[in-house]
Automatic annotation (TrEMBL):
<dbReference type="GO" id="GO:0005762">
    <property type="term" value="C:mitochondrial large ribosomal subunit"/>
</dbReference>
<feature type="region of interest" description="Disordered">
    <location>
        <begin position="64"/>
        <end position="83"/>
    </location>
</feature>
<dbReference type="InterPro" id="IPR052104">
    <property type="entry name" value="Mito_Release_Factor_mL62"/>
</dbReference>
<dbReference type="GO" id="GO:0004045">
    <property type="term" value="F:peptidyl-tRNA hydrolase activity"/>
</dbReference>
<dbReference type="GO" id="GO:0070126">
    <property type="term" value="P:mitochondrial translational termination"/>
</dbReference>
<protein>
    <submittedName>
        <fullName>Immature colon carcinoma transcript 1</fullName>
    </submittedName>
</protein>
<dbReference type="GO" id="GO:0016150">
    <property type="term" value="F:translation release factor activity, codon nonspecific"/>
</dbReference>
């Protein structure tokens, strides 16, 4: 819910589910209760399969990043040799 916090650290919630201000206020308070309940739940530990997939994805992303870096570097050195 970090996108609901402004730069000065205030939590901004709105509700327009009713025409009445007190109902909207009650809805906002319920949203806060739900956010607190959700945040108080312990984070689920990833399974071994999920952790392995995550590690493989990160390795592949790093490999691709380094490949692009190598290509970019080769292009720059090719330009420099021509001078």
């Amino acid at each position: 819910h970090k996108n609901k916090i402004n730069r000065s650290g205030e939590l901004i919630l709105t509700s327009e589910c009713s025409r009445y201000q007190f109902r909207n206020l009650a809805d906002c308070l319920q949203k806060i209760r739900d956010m607190i309940a959700e945040a108080s739940q312990p984070a689920k530990e990833p399974s071994k399969e999920d952790a392995a997939l995550h590690r493989i994805r990160i390795e592949n992303m790093n490999r691709e990043r380094l490949r692009k870096k190598r290509i970019h570097s080769a292009l720059k050195t090719d330009r420099r040799v021509g001078m």
